[in-house]
TrEMBL record:
<comment type="similarity">
    <text>Belongs to the UDP-glucose/GDP-mannose dehydrogenase family.</text>
</comment>
<dbReference type="InterPro" id="IPR017476">
    <property type="entry name" value="UDP-Glc/GDP-Man"/>
</dbReference>
<feature type="binding site">
    <location>
        <position position="146"/>
    </location>
    <ligand>
        <name>NAD(+)</name>
    </ligand>
</feature>
<feature type="binding site">
    <location>
        <position position="198"/>
    </location>
    <ligand>
        <name>substrate</name>
    </ligand>
</feature>
<dbReference type="InterPro" id="IPR013328">
    <property type="entry name" value="6PGD_dom2"/>
</dbReference>
<feature type="binding site">
    <location>
        <position position="30"/>
    </location>
    <ligand>
        <name>NAD(+)</name>
    </ligand>
</feature>
<dbReference type="Pfam" id="PF03721">
    <property type="entry name" value="UDPG_MGDP_dh_N"/>
</dbReference>
<feature type="binding site">
    <location>
        <position position="307"/>
    </location>
    <ligand>
        <name>substrate</name>
    </ligand>
</feature>
<feature type="binding site">
    <location>
        <position position="389"/>
    </location>
    <ligand>
        <name>substrate</name>
    </ligand>
</feature>
<feature type="binding site">
    <location>
        <begin position="243"/>
        <end position="247"/>
    </location>
    <ligand>
        <name>substrate</name>
    </ligand>
</feature>
<dbReference type="GO" id="GO:0006065">
    <property type="term" value="P:UDP-glucuronate biosynthetic process"/>
</dbReference>
<keyword id="KW-0520">NAD</keyword>
<dbReference type="InterPro" id="IPR014026">
    <property type="entry name" value="UDP-Glc/GDP-Man_DH_dimer"/>
</dbReference>
<dbReference type="InterPro" id="IPR036220">
    <property type="entry name" value="UDP-Glc/GDP-Man_DH_C_sf"/>
</dbReference>
<keyword id="KW-0732">Signal</keyword>
<dbReference type="InterPro" id="IPR001732">
    <property type="entry name" value="UDP-Glc/GDP-Man_DH_N"/>
</dbReference>
<keyword id="KW-0560">Oxidoreductase</keyword>
Amino acid sequence: MMRIAVIGLGYVGLANAVLLAQHNQVTAVDISPERVAMVNARKSPVDDTELENFLANKPLHLSATTHIVEAVEGVEYVIIATPTDYDPNNNFFDTSSVDATVRAVFAANPNVLIIVKSTIPVGHIRKLRERVGNDQIVFSPEFLREGRALYDNLHPSRIIVGERSERAKTFADLLLQGSLEEDVPMLFTDPDEAEAIKLFANTYLALRVAYFNELDSYAMARGMDTRQIIEGIGLDPRIGDHYNNPSFGYGGYCLPKDTKQLLANYSEVPQNLIGAVVDANRTRKDFLAEQIVARQPKVVGVYRLVMKAGSDNFRQSSIQGIMKRIKAKGIEVVVYEPALDEATFFGSRVVSDLSDFKDQADVIVANRRSDELRDVDAKVFTRDLFGAD
């Protein structure tokens, strides 16, 4: 049984902590006392069915604390899963939380192997090793969905570690040991290549989202049935019928920042395609906002800010871009979001009663359909054609 510390209790950190705590002694660290208390009470601070189930019902060797020094003393591995937001002013990821955590860990335990799970720019691990004078830092990308983070760790599509070494293989085996799969592809790469895999994978997904949204905008503008077109092209096995549901544009935490990060990384090489993906996302939101405004509503209701079912995260959700464009036309916007305990959201009133919300809104904007809105279907504006995230 290994001793492991996991720093950061968001989706990525908590999913890894729970996965590994099935067979190892894991101490989770977070700056939020509330999150730490919830984990110690075996409750999930994020909305994730599998995480809630495992914390409540599975035997886990897991504890949580706000004290990083005591958590990392004597452990063999430290996993860092702290936030890395895109900084538009510097045109780069803000990796300060990762860098500061690495220094704090090495100050307490200079021989531990640090595994970075946070999304970082290409070349960051190589440069960070040089800056801190320690090569005990490895990047291992995550490919998790919000709301299904532990499920995706239990059933991984692949395990990638950005180092070709025995210690990298040992860590990969720990991840495999906690999963419910026996035959999982493993790939061991150099550091820069592992970072590029993460960014390019998310950018491809953003490209696919942008493609089906552009198809939908084309069909809407010409009064055509989008679903018929998507079903027809999806019969081509090279395209397939997955990840094809139109939306209000890609959003969430990973896709926007990763595509912008790639644009920054592409400063010295051609980047036409990725630039087009970023532009297409903006154009999609413009087009849909115009469609809503054309209905001449006095009040537009936004049903849920979250990106998708089973998520409680509305950082950079695409629907916010629609809201801003509608409000710029002088139209009042009200919000229904049970996960939000505030009276307003960026200047828009939050209506906590669903019936009251339905009565107030002339048009209800919903990124995904819900049974809760069936009685006001005539008011609902959505591009959810397949009922899938």
